[in-house]
């Protein structure tokens, strides 16, 4: 059995308590929620936090999925299974259900959390691409108060975020706008694996014209998990396969994949184009009401 | 509501597995469940380098850890004469490294502490001064003139060569090739994979300082063989060693050999005077225990223009890792690779295998490979498809044209092996009928017109299992015969003691069924005892699909001995001559007078009673036997796989898999089907996703289940199984063994299907694993070679 190096453990009883504990325990303390990324890394002794602050008791405050005004709000402690099972999330943004169906396996989804996935900042994280496509906004809280950060600005590098050591992610907000459709496309070596590459797309149409678009990419070294050049080029264009393919090409040109056992650079770049195109096609079909 | 007559299950047929009563309730008892009073915990320090000299080891900080009792290094073992141990292939392997480390993950030091956490913490406190050496990770570079010599510990070893082996007639084969109309060659790699049982290896050693008796709870597929090896290695008297293999969570050949960790738990118990548990973690298991395959093969096939296969010529470079520790009959350095001629009637065949050392973990024979038959079948079944590609022939028709015919059995191959029985065309035809082969080809043609990629893969295999005849087969001199003991209690309940050991195969059920079938006893009334050397007769254990062919035969024969003995007792009970009795399924009865008869239960009571028995009959009802198989048994099967390939992503979806297996008489068809299901999933895994890869520095790239992938139900279609039954003529119940059939036969069916799908792109061969990236590469004109298994 793999076992972690020694650490201390605290259980937070409220958001305020969690933040206070993080402040007291210092920068080598880590928040643990589902633990499905952090604990394996600790067992392999790749991660060695001095202390864990367990926030699993904060579900009443942090685990809700609801519509608030024009926003879909997803609590950071919502489990993957909650998001997959959420009718309101699926109704407004089918991309969530697309993605959650292919994230890990049911055991992991039952306990792994949305906020934990984003804060872990794995360069192959599926939800990072989903929230990038939707241009979601994270609410962070520290001792000084609350601040809002676009998910596109949350990640500063592999396993690194803008969160201060004593900041906690509270929730994520996505603006609900009319005329939209969204979809997620992933290639994996085996179900439950991290993606070889994956792309998420959200499209808002005016008739047959792309009014607005968001494209998220993961596992291909796209800065902030996004494809801004492809988005800019696609806005105002006709919503056709041709323009989607062109956007896919642009997305591929601007990402920076690295070779590993999942595949070589050119293959991953090809997938960035192919999967972006497929996600855009499905998102547009959904925007038109042609596909569930 | 219909009422079903409640009758206890007896004999062959589908019945629930007896062992599942405990296993599905979480009440199994695995090595890691063993907790003895005062038990200590061991952990190994392993090498981060694939090849490095050890300048010094400083254990002082680890020893200063408050919960550490001892730290043992190779130097400590050297003093005891235990630094090296023999392997099952007449080589030696370091227990703990002394001079240098030879692969990443090799055992360097052993910490014994009060608890597992402290042992792990203290391992990190050991300081080793390594001096890195040049690495040989590529078998093809192992014999280069400038290659560093890995085994400089062996006197006279000046290169990385281990052995040369050949089979078949070279001159005859060369002549056939020289005159053949068509000759096709292909380089085929069977990459290094790992059997990855979900339970890792481990042991609890308990050396009683008073009695001098060692009890070793261990993950062993062969407890009796292990006991003898420990006696030979450690100089412990064999009657003072008791090896207990409790429930085993999968073996697949991985738990046949002896690992340094087992030895260290024993040394630890001797040193501390307390029980010591050692259980490795997943990364340790995948990095250091017996891998499988790593066969670099060049096949050549000779044929006529109209598709009559004439000959096969094969050259193999076998990567055995840093120590030659393959677990197989000792005189068979390439296992049973002789059967590379497969299921075909050839004029000539020849093969050479060269084994080499590399800076990688030792092993090679595991993962249900049937002693290298997996590699042999993969080679020949790929070569037949390569020939079909060149001849533009249908792969099923080409096979049908060349299969050994039923009237040719017993069939002696060009490598001298005698296949016992079979009707190959019938099995292939059944598979084609089940698949709807012609319709599938039509569908494929239509899809190709539309630019869609669909493939149909065919594979036919012949297995050789049940090792084996003791005059040919032994492990370190121990003949591969197995014993069985059967005792019928006075009330007619039975206890069977066998030498083989289940790792999930269901022995406790099927062996009870064999006894029940012979004696008419209900399955539930027969207890099967196994996995404890103090409680069971000697035998070589479970691997190579040998349990049913060898131990199953012993079980049937020992039950027949009981039946014969019972006949004499029955004759005394009925006051008739034994010659006047006949066996009627569950009782001896008087010929012509069915009213007069005695069941085994009645006879058992009488055998223990005051009944006067005939002269020379001892009483009680028990028997022992040892079974020495006259030949191997040869199960076979025809597999057809249907895949769809996404040409935009290279993704492969296995749509259907039809598996027709002939394993002779089936004792419990449900268990047979379960074995086949598992092996088919293995095949999908190997074909599409599995490889133990290394980089040039010998770094292991697959030491977790995130890197080394096991297939899930979502990669597997709903298996479509069929069967034909050709009993083995020399096995007491006609059974042939099935444990490895599907693992042997299925990888090639999947690979052949993928290559069939992408045939329009001019791809004739591609090496496993056919990941999306590899398939996309092939579609884009890139040859798929996983060669070194380094991406």
TrEMBL record, chain A:
Protein keywords: FAD, Flavoprotein, Oxidoreductase
Residue ranges constituting the FAD-binding PCMH-type domain according to the UniProt record: 2-179
Record-linked Gene3D superfamilies: 3.30.465.10, CO dehydrogenase flavoprotein, C-terminal domain, Uridine Diphospho-n-acetylenolpyruvylglucosamine Reductase, domain 2
Annotated SMART domains: CO_deh_flav_C
An example Gene Ontology molecular-function term: oxidoreductase activity
PANTHER family referenced in this protein's UniProt entry, alphabetically: XANTHINE DEHYDROGENASE SUBUNIT C-RELATED (PTHR42659)
Name of this chain's protein: Carbon-monoxide dehydrogenase medium subunit
UniProtKB/TrEMBL annotation, chain B:
Domain called Aldehyde oxidase/xanthine dehydrogenase a/b hammerhead: residue spans: 25-134
Keyword annotations: Molybdenum, Oxidoreductase
Keyword Oxidoreductase: yes
Gene3D superfamilies with a match to the protein in the record: Aldehyde oxidase/xanthine dehydrogenase, a/b hammerhead (3.90.1170.50), Aldehyde oxidase/xanthine dehydrogenase, molybdopterin binding domain (3.30.365.10)
Listed cofactors: Mo-molybdopterin cytosine dinucleotide
Oxidoreductase listed as a keyword: yes
A Pfam family assignment: MoCoBD_2
Domain of life (superkingdom): Bacteria
Transmembrane segments: none
Example GO molecular function: molybdenum ion binding
PANTHER family given in the database record: ALDEHYDE OXIDASE 1-RELATED, XANTHINE DEHYDROGENASE
Descriptive protein name: Carbon-monoxide dehydrogenase large subunit
């Amino acid at each position: 059995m793999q076992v972690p190096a020694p650490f201390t453990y605290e259980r937070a009883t409220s958001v305020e308590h969690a933040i206070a504990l993080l402040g007291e325990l210092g920068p080598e303390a880590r928040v643990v929620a589902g633990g499905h990324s952090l604990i394996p890394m600790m067992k392999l002794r790749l991660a060695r936090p001095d202390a864990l602050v367990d926030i699993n008791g904060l579900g009443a405050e942090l685990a809700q999925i609801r519509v608030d005004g024009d926003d879909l709000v997803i609590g950071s402690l919502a489990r993957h299974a909650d998001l997959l099972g959420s009718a309101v999330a699926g109704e407004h943004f089918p991309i969530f259900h697309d993605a959650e169906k292919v994230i890990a396996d049911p055991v992991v989804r039952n306990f792994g959390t949305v906020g934990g996935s984003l804060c872990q900042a794995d360069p192959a994280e599926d939800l990072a691409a989903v929230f990038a496509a939707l241009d979601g906004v994270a609410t962070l809280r520290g001792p000084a108060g609350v601040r809002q950060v676009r998910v596109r600005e949350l990640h500063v590098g592999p396993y690194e975020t803008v969160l201060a050591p004593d900041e906690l992610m509270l929730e994520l907000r996505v603006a609900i706008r009319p005329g939209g459709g969204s979809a997620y496309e992933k290639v994996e070596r085996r179900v439950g694996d991290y993606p070889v590459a994956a792309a998420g797309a959200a499209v808002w149409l005016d008739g047959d014209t792309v009014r607005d678009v968001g494209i998220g990419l993961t596992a291909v070294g796209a800065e902030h998990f996004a494809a801004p050049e492809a988005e800019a080029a696609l806005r105002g264009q006709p919503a056709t396969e041709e323009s989607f393919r062109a956007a896919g090409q642009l997305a591929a040109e601007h990402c920076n994949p690295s070779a590993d056992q999942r595949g070589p650079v050119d293959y991953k770049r090809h997938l960035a184009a192919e999967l972006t195109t497929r996600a855009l096609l499905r998102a547009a079909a959904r925007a038109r009401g042609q596909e569930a | 509501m219909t009422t079903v007559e409640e009758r206890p299950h007896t004999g062959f047929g589908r019945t629930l597995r007896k062992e599942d009563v405990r296993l599905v309730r979480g009440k199994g008892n695995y090595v890691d469940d063993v907790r003895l009073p005062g038990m200590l915990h061991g952990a190994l320090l392993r090498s981060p380098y694939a090849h490095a000299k050890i300048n010094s080891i400083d254990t002082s900080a680890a020893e200063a850890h408050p919960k550490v009792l001892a730290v043992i290094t190779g130097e400590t073992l050297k003093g005891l004469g235990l630094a090296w141990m023999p392997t099952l292939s007449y080589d030696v392997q370091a227990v703990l490294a002394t001079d240098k480390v030879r692969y990443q993950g090799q055992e360097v030091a052993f910490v014994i502490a009060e608890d597992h956490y402290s042992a792990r913490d203290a391992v990190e406190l050991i300081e080793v001064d390594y001096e890195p050496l040049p690495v040989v990770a590529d078998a093809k570079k192992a014999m280069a003139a400038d290659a560093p010599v890995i085994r400089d510990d062996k006197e006279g070893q000046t290169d990385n060569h281990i052995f040369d082996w050949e089979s078949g007639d070279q001159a005859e084969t060369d002549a056939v090739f020289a005159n053949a109309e068509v000759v096709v060659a292909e380089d085929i790699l069977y990459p290094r994979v790992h059997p990855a049982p979900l339970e890792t290896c481990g042991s609890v050693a308990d050396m009683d300082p008073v009695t001098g008796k060692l009890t070793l709870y261990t993950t062993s597929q062969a407890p009796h063989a292990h006991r003898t090896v420990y006696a030979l290695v450690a100089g412990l008297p064999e009657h003072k060693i008791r090896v207990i293999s409790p429930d085993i969570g999968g073996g697949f050949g991985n738990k046949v050999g002896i690992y340094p960790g087992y030895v260290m738990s024993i040394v630890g118990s001797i040193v501390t005077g307390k029980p010591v548990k050692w259980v490795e973690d997943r990364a340790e298991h995948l990095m250091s225990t017996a891998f499988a395959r790593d066969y670099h093969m060049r096949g050549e096939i000779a044929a006529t223009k109209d598709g009559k296969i004439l000959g096969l010529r094969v050259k193999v470079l076998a990567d055995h890792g840093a120590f030659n520790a393959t677990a197989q009959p000792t005189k068979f350095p390439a296992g049973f690779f002789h059967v590379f001629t497969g299921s075909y009637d050839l004029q000539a065949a020849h093969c050479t295998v060269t084994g080499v050392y590399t800076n990688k973990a030792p092993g090679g024979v595991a993962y249900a490979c049937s002693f290298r038959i997996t590699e042999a079948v993969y080679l020949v079944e790929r070569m037949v498809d390569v020939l079909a590609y060149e001849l533009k022939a249908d792969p099923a028709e080409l096979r049908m044209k060349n299969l050994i015919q039923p009237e040719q059995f017993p069939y002696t191959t060009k490598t001298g092996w005698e296949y016992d029985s079979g009707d190959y065309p019938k099995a292939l035809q059944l598979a084609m009928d089940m698949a709807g082969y012609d319709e599938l080809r039509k569908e494929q043609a239509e899809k190709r017109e539309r630019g869609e990629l669909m493939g149909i893969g065919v594979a036919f295999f012949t297995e050789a299992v049940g090792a084996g005849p003791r005059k040919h087969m032994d492990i370190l001199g121990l003949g591969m015969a197995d014993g069985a003991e059967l005792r019928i209690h006075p009330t007619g309940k039975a206890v069977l003691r066998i030498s083989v050991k289940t790792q999930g195969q269901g022995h406790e059920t099927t062996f009870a069924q064999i006894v029940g079938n012979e004696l008419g006893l209900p399955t539930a009334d027969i207890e099967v005892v196994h996995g404890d050397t103090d409680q069971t007769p000697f035998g070589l254990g479970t691997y190579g699909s040998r349990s049913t062919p060898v131990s199953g035969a012993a079980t049937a024969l020992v039950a027949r001995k009981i039946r014969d003995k019972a006949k004499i007792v029955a004759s005394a009970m009925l006051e008739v001559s034994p010659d006047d009795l006949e066996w009627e399924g569950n009782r001896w009865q008087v010929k012509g007078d069915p009213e007069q008869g005695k069941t085994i239960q009645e006879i058992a009571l009488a055998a223990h009673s005051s009944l006067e028995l005939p002269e020379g009959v001892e009483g009680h009802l028990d028997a022992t036997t040892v079974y020495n198989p006259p030949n191997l048994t040869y199960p076979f099967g025809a597999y057809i796989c249907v895949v769809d390939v996404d040409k935009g992503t290279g993704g492969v979806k296995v749509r259907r898999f039809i598996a027709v297996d002939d394993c002779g008489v089936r004792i419990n068809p449900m268990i047979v089907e379960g074995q086949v299901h598992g092996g088919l999933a293995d095949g999908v895994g190997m074909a599409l996703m599995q490889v133990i890869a290394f980089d040039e520095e010998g770094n292991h790239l697959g030491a977790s289940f995130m890197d080394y992938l096991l297939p899930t139900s979502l990669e597997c279609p709903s298996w479509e199984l069929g069967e034909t039954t050709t009993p083995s003529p020399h096995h007491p119940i006609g059974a042939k063994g099935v444990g490895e059939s599907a693992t042997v036969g299925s990888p090639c069916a999947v690979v052949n299907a993928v290559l069939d799908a992408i045939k329009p792109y001019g791809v004739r061969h591609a090496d496993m694993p056919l990941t999306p990236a590899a398939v996309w590469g092939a579609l884009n004109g890139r040859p798929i070679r996983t060669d070194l298994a380094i991406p």
